[in-house]
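Lecture 7, part B: from sequences to assemblies.

Below are the input chains for today's worked example.
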Amino acid sequence: MADVVFSSWGGKVVDNRQGGEPQPAVFKLPENYLDEGRIGAFMGWDGLIIYDREVDVVAMAAEYMKRVQEKYCCAKCTPGKRGTRVMMDTLARIVAGQGQEADLDTLAGLADLLENCKCTLCMTAARPVLDSVKHFRGDYLAFIRGERQVKAAKAYHEKLTAPCTDRCPAHIDIPAYVEEIKDYRFEEALDTIRRNMPIAAVCGRVCPHPCEKSCRRALVDEPISIMVLKRVPSDHEWMHHLQPPMKPKAPTGKKVIVVGAGPAGLTCAYYMALEGHQVKIIDMLSEPGGTVAVGIPDYRMPRHLLQREADIVAALGVEIQYGVKLGRDVTLAQLKEQYDAVFLGTGAFKSKPMGVEGEDQGYEGFSTGGIHYLRAVALGEPIKTPKRVVVVGGGNTAIDCVRVALREGAEESILLYRRTRKEMPAEPYEVDDAEEEGVKFVFLALPTKLITENNKIVGIEVQKMELGEPDASGRRSPQPVPGSEYILPCDLVIPAIGQDPDLDYLDQGEYGIKKTRWNSIVTHGGTMMTDNEGVFAGGDCEYGAMTVVLAVGHGRRAARVMHRYLTEGKAYLNEEDAMEDIINGLGAFDKNEKVGLKGGLHREHQPKVHGAERIANYEEIELAMPESQAVREAERCLRCYRVGMLAVNG
Amino acid sequence: MSHSHTDTQITLTIDGKRAQVAAGATILDAAESVGVRIPTLCYLKKISPTGACRICVVEVAGADKTMTACNTRAVDGMEITTQSEKLSAIRRQVVELLLVNHPLDCPVCDAGGECDLQDVCYSQDVTSQPFAAEDVNAPTIDHWPLIQQVPNRCILCEKCVKVCYEVIGSGALSVNEKGDRAFIDKDLAKCEFCGNCVQVCPTGTMISKPFKFKARPWELRKTASVCTLCPAHCQVSYESKHGKVLRVTSADGVTINDGNLCVGGFFGHGYLNSDRRLTAPLLDGQPASWEAALGRVASELARIRDEAGGQALAGLAAGHLTNEEGSLFQKLFRVALGSSNLDSPMRFGLLRAVKTLRTQLGLTTASAPLETIGRAGAILVFGCDPTSEAPAVDWQVQLAHRKRDTKLVVADPRRIKLAGQAEIFLQYRPGSEVQLAGALAKLIVAKGQADLAWLGQFVGNQADLLAYLDGIDLAAACAASGVDQALLEEAADHLGSAASVAVIFGHAVTQAAGAEDSVAALINLALVSGALQQHGGIFPVGEQGNAFGLLTAGVCADFLPGFEPAAAGADAAGILAGIENGTIKALYLAGCNPLLEFPENRRWKAALAKLQLLVVQDVLESELTALAGVVLPGAAGAEKSGSLTALDGRVSPLAKAVDPPGEARADLAILADLFAALSGKPAPSEAALRSELAGQQQPSTPTSSRLQGAAPAVIAPPAAELRLLIGKCPFHFGAATCFSPANLELAPGGAILVNPADAARLGVADGGLLKVTGPAGTASGKALLTNKVPAGLLTASPNFADLNIQQIMPGGGNCVAVTAVKG
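Predicted structure of the full complex, as structure tokens:
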């Protein structure tokens, strides 16, 4: 990493211009911008970072303000619209040698005034300019006196982002759709979401919403309910029987095969179809959605809505063939031969072993895994859930299993987890929901042995645990309490401790596609392309079992690169992709920021079906949020837009 | 549900004053409640707060930054400061930025004198301009009809954008571009030309072309009155100079229409100043004195009465008559002339609905005030295009559906604007109304969503009603209406599960053959869906400006004032037959033009030639005035006093803003002279007539168990490849606006709306001539290609004399099988 020459990032000034012992400052920025050259400086919402003392800070500030005003300023507030315009023109005059010293006061005064903007876009754009005036006044004065000529960088690259958008793996323009909801423009909000995410009905329901962890409103009171606000416009379209407005571009003549109709595959197919490519999806299941369909129960994600999302993709001209499994019914070699590009979105359908004595014996009453149990129930396969069920694990799949077991007639449904409730990776509200429904929890308990009679499960031996020191994940690691073993009687044990991708199909030929040591597919540099040219991969099979929204992000990025691969013959990242990744590395959220606003407003919660009423069936539990309530929630958004720009030197 | 905060109160202090407001209120609301005035510019109460101008910034204790009062919700315990040096400096600088490159054309700017930007400059003491930027200088947009946009004057407050979208529901306006180049642009195809963008514009950015350069605002004399063009009766201010109405405005917050106007209210007044106004009495086509003209009318009427009896005389009234004028008109016939041959165009529409409403519910207007629609839990709009027929009804629907989570079900043969906004659009075939409404009612009962206890208490024949509904064949209803059963069930569920329901029906129901049965079916639906319980309502939308008032006043063969049954005279059909067979010899038309408004009007035209006396009392020239023996120039709504009755029974006073043109007189004065001459007694005064009518005011809320369900007959619409339905043009209101240049700019003449598929089959292009032949005749007009009408259905508006679509219609219908050829 190059040394920082100057930085005002985050309000902390590091100035090494005068030489001497360099003060350290480390930012998660790459040294180079793609293969274009070295990054000389970065200018953005939190200040200035300069790596190369040759960077013309004044020229960069002028260019930054021009791009903010001409490309991003929404014009919807007076100081933003006119203030950045006056700043842009003032900076332009200065670099043209026609400035006056008083202009520097104007810039500083406007930067102050812009703190009163409607949103943070123009407000934060003024900050690095103010920093430059403060710390590079000499350079400004040199321009003003006509002693200096502009020395532009080789290139400038900028990107509009927001903490929530940056944190979302699909990089949805969250402030835009939230504002559209605030303005009662639900159809436009859905258009905005669909620019990055075709399955709003899904991610509006079951997304773990990392975006809300980066919501600046949380620094004022509570985070915006970003996920539910994504569901609202999708419900609006569905409940109003509106036809989605998307129209594919003219046919390109290129053929694409997508393996897997899960979130990654549907997303890739959607964006490729919109580009005019002829897309076909194959899936081993009998319905769309992959893990979402057969791994998430209907009370959380109604499958008719998943089907509707797939129908929307199909309406773009995408053919979906079910019951076809890669490796069983067709080989990758055959697909490569028949299609111009392949996307692998095969998910992670192999249940991880518990590492418990007897689990490979095929006992009656021992499930091959939570994901298989859920799938069998979802597909209506003839499985019978007995009276006492023990599910081992602490994630969402484990929670889904205990709740489904109750609905399938179990009298007792017990979740066994080796740490405490606090460490459970499952969403807290789902744990609460499970409890409300009557699920029993046994925490700090590790299964050690299956207890059987006549090859049939009758119980599980459990060892008590206690929490020790925090491990690498920051969670306190459980330690067994010697001699604490006891037997928990039960008729069915379901291990739900994780899934791995099943990549056997890669071993059927010399494809040269590398796997990670976690048995997932290796892709390169954010292009989602594997070592086999024209074969892309994304979602759980690429990352390991992760989230729907990550799969969507992968599917979209893969489609963007694949489109270039098909039309330009080269798989590469463009400016938007590259800047998306660079800013994601740097991070756009500062959890210690003092926002300076008075909060006190609670976030809105959607209505919900309660307790006993709901365990009798698989009807959706979380009900549609009334639009007036969604508008009120959207009004809380602080619209934390920000623009980052970097200078590339030769 | 957790989304109502309004039950809890919070307390905060504003400039040291303690304010208590409902949770959810903004700082601005709270300040207003304790009399603290915070300056605003982009704030407009009826739209969602925008927060664009930043002038309402305040300081909040505990916050380093300022916050905007208009869009920050107040929180318990907040301490607010609204005036400080810091705030003044911010406000001043913001205004200074607004003024960067703002043109210095205030002297010729239309908003000069009523410009919020001028006012805020003054109040914030902005006297200099420290900022400079290159002038974007966007060119003035002049190619939009009726409205000019001057981007240089725009402060981007978005009031116009939001009123257009949130209040009017048109969504034609948007902010384009980024940064300083941004301005307000328009999708002309969506524009309703309601002029509300002009009304709410705080500067001279959105300008009414017809008003531009006509007057300075302070020169205008304002007269608070009521718009007479449709039965909603919006409150308006007629603004006049030198005796001419130059513009119409309405004030937010104080009018029942909350300041909103439509293309009729805002632009339609142009007819008042038309050079085709009738300005002097005519005798046989020649100008004459009032004395001579009235003398001829009185003497001829008296002669015919004396020779052939009162039954040889007939009167038809409509349009611009007030309640008092309607009352006196029928007195002239019933009392002075001894004739009950009275009728109006409502015979072919609203009257049929009112008769059924009266029989089953004891109602003659809507069952609840218009605002009830805005608060309903679900709304059914059935055979009605509120956007065209009564825009104020549309605004209530917009408010409810957009902002208050109200479910909207639209049933109409045409893809009207509301169809695109509704949860459910039931595009039915004309003629299937009884089955469709019946099926909805049946489903509500079948799902257990009807309030049987209420029905038992309030509906006299509840058992019969339920038995009738039970017998309805859903599959047959779907087949007849062409509506998908799943969609129908979803619609029924919206209506059945709502806490309150508003049922709105309009022209496509009331003007249709079998309207009595359709309305009966809708009443059944209203009963089982709870629309006649508290917070609900049934809303008939009538055709004429004062339709409800004239019916209540007894301008009708079968009812005396107050809907007392009358010794039946001849109704419109009887009058036509009477003229044809010579028994009716004199016809008095007060604001009524059968040659345009009545079906079968070729028969009327031939018949009129047989009359011994044709008197036409009206405000504008027409084919009729050329045929009339005597023409009496009357006064339009802005030119007289009196009262009107709206569709919800609301009675509003008119105020005279200007004098009628030339020698034209208020219609009441004309009728009073004739009444006196023919009865020998002085006519009752306007005040006396009004108080007499007040005693006859009909109940507007059904109160007793006399409510009745009915078993309406199913109408069997003729199978036809192509049918034509009468459907009102959204840019015109009756014949009057056909004399308003502004409205003519939008729709210069009659057009026949054709689905592109039909147009292709008929070989007619957009704008090409189409000749349609129906049972009563042939009409030809320009084809207008649009997907708003389904294949197999044409529509045409009835108010255009050039097309005169009513000439092809048989009596008593609005939809007929037609043949069409390119022509």
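Note for the exam: The radius of gyration of chain A is 27 Å. Keep this in mind when comparing with the next example.
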